[in-house]
Description:
mainly alpha
Amino acid sequence: xxxxxxxxxxxxxxxxxxxxxxxxxxxxxxxxxxxxxxxxxxxxxxxxxxxxxxxxxxxxxxxxxxxxxxxxxxxxxxxxxxxxxxxxxxxxxxxxxxxxxxxxxxxxxxxxxxxxxxxxxxxxxxxxxxxxxxxxxxxxxxxxxxxxxxxxxxxxxxxxxxxxxxxxxxxxxxxxxxxxxxxxxxxxxxxxxxxxxxxxxxxxxxxxxxxxxxxxxxxxxxxxxxxxxxxxxxxxxxxxxxxxxxxxxxxxxxxxxxxxxxxxxxxxxxxxxxxxxxxxxxxxxxxxxxxxxxxxxxxxxxxxxxx
Length: 307
């Protein structure tokens, strides 16, 4: 579990928000920012608003997940996991639900302002993001309960954020550049999906018991382990491919610094079913994603400085 039970409501809310996976917002926003900076369209105030709005929607998704998993009984058999403040009787279900509504409303308010400063593409991205945040574990067809979690996260915490953040700073962006941004986002998309999949491998037995049909549950442990390898190594392979296309500077290969940790995590997930160890490895996967994204930004900054 996430250490000792929290000693205050503030600590409980901190755990419920699951900040260690906020790298899922920081990494794509950072990449969008450095691309915009190189293209000469970076706008600091708009960028910070996009960051705040995205963090609010991610927080809303985490709180909805906390509430919906509790209501569906998905937390009942979990030995470890983020949050679980309702299960531990630290936060009331209604409080978590109200927090999710507030975070969603605040994120949407920022989105509406950004929409007024940009154009209709943001409407499509924003509505898609809100839809995923709400239906990820809630509603009649929750994405995470029907094998769609990884693809939803890969799309909306990868290309959607990067394209959306760039677009609000440069609404006149061409269709060709949007396509290039989609390709640039692929390494981040692979790695962010790996965070979720690591979570699903850890929770396989508990999820199976409550009919939470993640890809790991549907196809079994051998497939789940192969998928983790595919996602983690796929991030490096996708980056190499995009560099070969000339859309990423070669200096972004600073990410190779993280390859040893990636291989260590692959070994853990391929050899262990111990939930405490897998829980630790899931947290390390989130850190890997953050480091990978940061090194892409640092490498791109170095490329600009040396140009």
